[in-house]
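Hey L., structure's done. Input below.
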Amino acid sequence: MKRTLLILLLLLVVGTAKADRVRVRLFSANTVSTLNVSFDLGAYNLYVDGDNLLEDMVGEGRSVTVRHESGKLHVSVNEDDYGLHSTLRLEATDTACIMCLNPEGAKQRTYEGNLEIKPLGMGSLLVVGDVEFETYIAGVVQSEIYGQQSDIFRIQAIISRTWALRNINKHAADGYNFCDHVHCQAYLNRCVRPDIMMGVIRSSGETLVDASGRLIETPFHSNSGGQTANSEDVWRTALPYLRSVQDTFSYRMRQSDWTKTISADKWLAYFKNKHKLDTGNPAVRDTLLHYAQPTRRVRILGVPLTRVRVDWKLKSTFFSVDYDSATRNVVLRGHGYGHGVGLSQEGAIRMVGLGISYDSILHHYYTGAVLHHDPTVVIHYIENYAEQLARIIEEDANSTTRTRSKKDDWLGRLFRLRDREEREEIYIEEQQDNEQDWQYEW
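Output:
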């Protein structure tokens, strides 16, 4: 039997469809001038200046250091100095390869896939990960949402996959598909949690489309504060599936409410100087000092609340204003966190906890959207991998004090399962230690 699809979560290729691999700029919010790369699992071939092989099978116990120097890359491997080069590429020799990136001035991260480095201006490095599409989605889900239940991660995987496929060429002019920051989607590490993988696996082949079958925009935010926003209230363009909805599920969550205290003089001066309002007018002054939003509004005296939010670094535009005459301060009492359009992550977390189905949650936040199932995704393989993950999660829960080697790591176990299935064999866990024909040397 020949199959057309492999499920890849970290290591396993999921065919949703239209993207096999993506290129993601890493540390895009940082200025990185020196990067050290070590290896947690597997081996990599090191190329410079195109396809010139500098070293092969670089793996555990070795590390590559790249430093910007005079518009070039200064490359060394352990104690071996290889001088200056124009480009560097680390290419994984197998699917189950993990590298650890240690940039100077930023936190350490781990990723799968390949790595490319080029010099940029101002002494910085352009660091780009080349990774399987679903591996990227799993890392995004881990970076973007918290929780414990599988459907939380399934929901995030669906909207992150939909966004990525719709915006696949967002940074094409820069030589990559996405950055790793909120400008695109956060991708701050490889996925290391099997429960997150479970949600991503179960979402295989699922995207959101409109009535004509086109992928929709799927913005999301931390918390709506009780009511989501229309797309045109934030970004000017009215989209039929991004309508304001009541969202009581977002109440009493981590980011439900906030306050900010500002000097009344500074508050009034801001509207006078920047937005040319006549704050000497009693009616104008009263509105600015005593402002209420029983439901979401777009402007205060003609001033876009999105502008106010940015200028004052507020968590949301959904706030009221009260004047404290004793302190001569205004107190902003706000609801929610984020732009408010599309899915409220904390609202979705609450809904999952209440037992509401994942598709109903998506339809609540994306009005009239259709949940599309890629017909090429073979349900048998999804269920098979999900069953294996469920076993791993249960075993981990019952073995909290056991130190697991890399061979017993859940990623390695899924890799061995995939390897056998590619060869149409039955995986017998008790026999795996006696096998001599694995592609990867554990």
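The two ends are 28 Å apart (CA to CA). Residues 32-123 form one domain.

-- N.
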